[in-house]
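Researcher: We're teaching a course module on how sequence relates to structure. For the next exercise, students receive a sequence and then see the predicted structure as tokens, so they can try to spot secondary structure elements on their own. Here is the exercise chain.
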Amino acid sequence: MQFVEANGARIPAIGLGTWELRGRTCARLVEQALKLGYRHIDTAQIYENEREVGEGLRSSRVKREQLFVTTKVWTTHFAPNDLERSTKESLTKLRLSEIDLLLLHWPNPQVPLRETLGALARVKKAGLARHIGVSNFTVALIEEAVAGCPEPLVCDQVEYHPYLDQTRVKQACARHGMALVAYSPVAKGRVKNDETLARIGKTHGKTPAQVCLRWLVQQNVAAIPRTSRIERLSENIDVFDFTLSELEMQHVSALASPKGRLTDFGFAPKWD
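Model: And here is the predicted structure for the students to work with:
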């Protein structure tokens, strides 16, 4: 497994996203992923599956110090006292004494960002989180967050796949020693019928999804593909035994389009 290093954090390059995974399925997939060699598991308060993720972590019998677990604070808990309380709730559900990476899930203009970041930094200082970061932050918000946070931020978790150009966000992260973590890295499954990706994959004996994930890994981006299928778990982590050429990398990047974004809500910030 490769790692993406950022401001003191070592983030396993491929992790398991758990959005929309529920109940026994969620616990079983987390356990199975860890048995296959995954060490990075991503959840969030709003996913309502932290308890099941915790069950999967325990059933896998993987040592705690080998795991990298991320959860995200929902926007309704950004007031300082609420942020701390909800983080403790997340830890109780996960049955962990600390989270490896705690993120602000989406920007929330209703609460001053500096206050929320102050609370996030306190949670880290109190030993509830080893590392802290943000998610769905634009370039302007990254700048504001870095300036306003008393502790280093290790990443911005954003939607990133071949159809969405995130060069500017990636550069902003790099300027501040932060990692980019990609959610929906295989564009919610849309890549499987892509001719360019299929052609490149054929050269390497790999699937379009594996080409996507490899493209991200070679940019030093961590990716958290979500799947509810066990066989897909092994496919998604099997991306460390081939390398895309410079030209192949360019061909994948050229798939980006202005309409490439798949996750957009009314409360989303004004994207770059």
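Model: If you want an answer key for the exercise: The domain at 3-189+215-243 is CATH 3.20.20.100 (TIM Barrel). Residues 80-94 form the longest helix (15 residues).
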